[in-house]
Fold:
Amino acid sequence: MNITVKHSLPGRIRLHYRADELSLRQAILAQTLIAVQDGITNIQINPHVHSFLVYYDTGIVSEDEVLALFRVLSDSYLSDESLLASTAQVPAPESVFNVLAGTLFNVAVRSLLPIPVRNMLLCRRIIPRILKAGKSILSGTFFSTDLLDATALTVAVLDGNMPTARFVSTLLDMGEEIEELTRRQSYNNLAQTLLISNEPVHVVEGDQERTVPPSALKRNDLIVVRAGSQLPADGEVERGEGLVNQAGITGESLPVEKSAGKTVFAGTLLVEGELYIRVRTVGTETKVHNIITMIDQSQSLKASAQKRSEQMAEKIVPFNFLLTGLTYLFTRDITKTISTLMVDYSCAMKLAAPIAILSAMKEAAEYGISIKGGKYLEEAALADTVVFDKTGTLTYAEPVLADIYPFAPYTEEEVLLLAACLEEHFPHPLGRAVVKAAEDRGLVHPERHAKVEYIVAHGIASALNGKRLCIGSAHFIFEDEQIPLSDEIAAIQHEAAAHGYSLLYLAADGILAGILTIGDPARHNAAETIAELKRLGVETCVMLTGDAEQAAAQIAAQTGITEYRAQTLPEDKVRYVQEAIENGHTVMMIGDGINDAPALSAAQVGAAMDSCTSIAGDTADILLSGDGLASLVTVRQLGQAVLRRINTTNKLIIGGNSFLLFAGMFGLIPPALAAVLHNSLTIAVSIQSMQKLLKE
Structure:
């Protein structure tokens, strides 16, 4: 197979193939065969320019190895009828090229028709615009871009300038198609990011399996998905059993059992088992796409900046008509008048802002962050008060062994070994911390003790080499077991309390063998996150926790939080958030537990940690990624960046279109050129709005 490198970057390469050597079906077959090779993360075909765009993992394959994969595809593969017959003809990707080519073809065909027929076709195209403008007026919108377009075309026709009317109508149609294409692609990009469908799909045909890229999947295909793989399409399980994690789609925190007859969704993860699935919906029909559509349809979730852009666009339209009237009044020149009608601010403003928001949400999804609406992204950018829960948010909610205090004749290693030997039988949070610490140190504890007895709310007791072993609370050891309490023990208790640690006491035959202190330390990046949030404009970071004062003070000191409240109930957290809002603050709440859900709901924007409970995840407006607190900074940066982009874009739209308006008013550009430049500016700002906001 002959290929030429057209462009190359690390991890990305565009290759050109000769159309006279490779048919579209052969190119699709090549895509299928290359897609399943190790290190290839994605491959796309552009049949219009005869090229492959290949994304690859530089840690697995090099550029030369990617090229070699293509060059070994000889005619024996690409001309194999059985392989070609099994390859689906996937639709060519949408592009601006398609729109332009289609428009030019239609213009060429219409130019061959008699003038009366062309005029009739023109009226047929103009009448829907006039009706649409009339509908806007009847609905209460007296000045709209629809009215601008209808007026421009009507004036041109009444003036007898049919060529101008035809050309302007063509440009308007083409501009609307490109705008719709741009909007649709921004949706598809977001959906594709949420779906993450680079993984090859295994299609079952009889007793054979065929591997294809997700883009080649068709309705009614039977596919097999195995543990650890993502489901590429919505469908129904025909056979097999498995556990599916569908939290990202349905909000269910625990994996759901799936068997024959059950429905599964694209974008969910098969945690365990094997499922044979009959594909029901692919592409834009999947559940992921439906969720994105609902996000856009919900007006309440629009960012204020987006709403302001749309309102500004509507308010400017009357000035277009005023300028048009003044132009005709002073010049009596229909051409100049039509030129001013060809330019408006509304199209670009209404298109660029939502595309910017969608692109920001897509970029957030690439970081593993789920944002339920543009409104919440903006609130996160503007929040001046950030409220943190402690356990599971600023900490890992996984107790770890902090210190061991051995008492003679026992060593530190012996204390840990005996404690782990007992605790492994009745796992609870503190016990797991002890067992894990022993495993981390490579301590092996053979089962040489007697039967282990668990005493509820007290501790564990057993016997080893004739000695009674006990581990548990201070009440169990010092009161029930009557172990003497010394000044040294009291000093250790005081120090541990100052750090907010929990204590486990190990006793052997009536004497204290050791004390183990266990804590829930702050996340490794908590202090860095809080410092970065303050740098990004957050004025107040506060911690609200139900823990004791000492534990709260310790975490506050570790993270750099200067304001905290300990022993708070869920209603106390809600009250704090409500009071802050009443005092004029924009509040963002971050939590993970059931007790955080009311405060998450009360705040202007609530964010839940990746490991949150189901109710917290359902209540939260933003679901953070596995990076946890680090992704909180990403949300803030994305929100601020998208607001800056919308403001900058609006200024560019107003400046550029104002220039075109005055150029048309003074006769510097004809109506057709005004329409071309106006649509070009709209497309340019829309494409700019789709670009990444954060640098890699």
